[in-house]
Amino acid sequence: MKILVTGGSRGIGKTICEELSSIGSVYTCTRDKERLKDCDVAGYCVCNLAKDVDILCKYITEIGFDVIVNNAGEYIYGAIDAITESQIREIYETNLISPVRIISSAVPYMKNQKWGRIINIGSISGVMGEANAGLYSSTKSGLIGLTKALALELAEYNITVNIINPGWVDTELGNSSIEKSEFTKEEILDCIPQRRFVSPKEVAGLVKYLISDNAKGITGQSVNICAGLSVGI
Predict the structure, then answer these.
(1) Exactly one of 27, 44, 59, 136 is catalytic; which is it?
(2) Which residues, in sequence order, are bridge partners of residue 4?
(3) Is 136 noted as a catalytic residue in this protein?
């Protein structure tokens, strides 16, 4: 089994790569190959999803992947009237347009073998909305809609499409986003019913399950893994 995990050099993506290495050959993409020094992957593609996703699409077509995990993403925090045009283009290209391009490149191989798994990593912000993160929330909400539509479109080919929406995750990105926000970590924890951040291992374990035959009947689903945040307000 050949698996592509975008953004696999750190955080959730790196943990997903590690978790899936026991079930197949894991490939990834990164902007900087130096970040892969501590990553054990079968192969990688160097590209910037906001600028040259064409490079990755060609890579996908050449190799042929059984599983696609769209994990790479950008987060921008700021008032809507303070966002620049370049920020708008970068976050939409990275979070929404590149997953569409990646899936489009991967599907012909999956259709031909009549089997495939596509897992998008969304965010609880795409489910609930997040003030001062309108661009991020809208891209992740768009990914939920894409997931549901493609699940219907690809079901007859034995290809499942699902999305996982993490809440606050204990990663470098998660902790750095706290610094950009107007809230302290303690204030954020007070809003989470389980009073904790989700671990990257929990997200990776769910990805692994959705790839398995035990989950072959699960498609078009938007699964929140957020320590109760989505139901605790």
Answers:
(1) 136
(2) 27, 68
(3) yes
